[in-house]
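User: Just a sanity check before I run the rest of the batch. Below are the C-alpha cells for the first item. I only need the designed sequence back.
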C-alpha cells in the first residue's frame, strides 16, 4: 500500500484517527492557523483536508492541493476520500499508524507489554501492537467489530 500524506484542520480529529489507522501519514493541525496549515501542506507536499470552505478556496487559489470534507458523517467521509484518492478501506496492522500520534505501530510480544495491560485483556488476547512514538498498546478487542462495521458501510456506500 502506498501511504498518502495529509494535513487536517482542527475540525477533522476523528477523520485523522481513521486515516492513520488505515496507514496514512496524517498531521493533525488543531492549533495551527490557516496560513500555517497551508504552509505545512505546501512544504511537506501534503494534501490539505478541511471542512472550512474559505480555507479550501484560498489553498486551491495558491496552488495547494486541497480536499473539502463536506459531510458530517464519518462513513461518508471515509468513502469519499477512498474513492477520490483510490485507497482501500482495510486496516493492515503492518501499515497502520498510531491514531494518537501518527507514529508507526510495531508488533509487540505480550510479555514485553504485559505491565501495560489489564489482566482480562492479557488473558483474552494474544496479538498486540505498540506505537513506536508514544508507546500506546493496541489489540483487536471488542471495539474491533465497530471499526470493521464502519469500514464495511463505507465500502458499501462507495458502490452507490
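Assistant: Here's the designed sequence for the first item:
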Amino acid at each position: 500500500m502506498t501511504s498518502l500524506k495529509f494535513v487536517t484542520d482542527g475540525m477533522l480529529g476523528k477523520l485523522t484517527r481513521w486515516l492513520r489507522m488505515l496507514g496514512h501519514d496524517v498531521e493533525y493541525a488543531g492549533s495551527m492557523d490557516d496560513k500555517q496549515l497551508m504552509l505545512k501542506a505546501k512544504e511537506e507536499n501534503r494534501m490539505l483536508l478541511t471542512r472550512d470552505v474559505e480555507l479550501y478556496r484560498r489553498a486551491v487559489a495558491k496552488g495547494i492541493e486541497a480536499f473539502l470534507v463536506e459531510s458530517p458523517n464519518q462513513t461518508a467521509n471515509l468513502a469519499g476520500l477512498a474513492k477520490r484518492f483510490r485507497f482501500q478501506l482495510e486496516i493492515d496492522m503492518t501499515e497502520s499508524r498510531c491514531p494518537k500520534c501518527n507514529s508507526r505501530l510495531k508488533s509487540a510480544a505480550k510479555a514485553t507489554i504485559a505491565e501495560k495491560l489489564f489482566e482480562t485483556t492479557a488473558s483474552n488476547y494474544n496479538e498486540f501492537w505498540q506505537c513506536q512514538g508514544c508507546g500506546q498498546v493496541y489489540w483487536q478487542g471488542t471495539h474491533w467489530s465497530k471499526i470493521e462495521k464502519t469500514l464495511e458501510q463505507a465500502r458499501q456506500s462507495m458502490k452507490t
